[in-house]
Design goal:
alpha/beta; 4 helices; Glutaredoxin; five-stranded mixed β-sheet; 136 residues; elongated; 46% helix
Length: 136
């Protein structure tokens, strides 16, 4: 009985350590991707992923500003460049739109369930990663 408990505790500990390692590794990969993109990131920056059929992107930007204050937002837009250009014209200078037609960056940053966002700091560490639901 005691040996079974010890084995179970060892298994749970090993499982927890493996999950922690996977999470840290994913965090490092996302940070590397952000560095490779070469974006100028402020002390706190939001990356918002939106798609072609998402007409509520202004509402999503407002949600991020309400929750985190007036932080810079980089919109990764999964759609054609001409539509992203129109979107950029409607937005303030604190919001930058980047075209990601093939959704490569969105996939790498795990922003595939659109609309979703992540908050990063100046060292490219991910502070929060969440999906924006329609009830917003």
């Amino acid at each position: 009985m005691t040996i079974a408990i010890i084995i179970w505790l060892l298994f749970v500990t090993a499982f927890t350590l493996v999950l922690r390692y996977i999470r840290v590794r994913q965090q490092q990969l996302k940070s590397t991707i952000l560095r490779e993109i070469g974006l100028s990131i402020s002390p706190v920056t939001a990356l918002l992923g939106v798609g072609l059929d998402d007409i509520g992107y202004m509402r999503h930007i407002s949600y991020i500003h309400e929750k985190y204050g007036e932080i810079p937002i980089i919109v990764l837009y999964k759609g054609p460049a001409w539509k992203a250009d129109l979107m950029q014209r409607k937005l303030s200078s604190s919001v930058q739109v980047i075209v990601d037609e093939e959704a490569e960056l969105l996939r790498k940053l795990e922003l595939t369930d659109l609309p979703s966002y992540l908050i990063t700091d100046q060292a490219y560490r991910i502070r929060e990663h969440s999906r924006i639901f329609d009830a917003v």
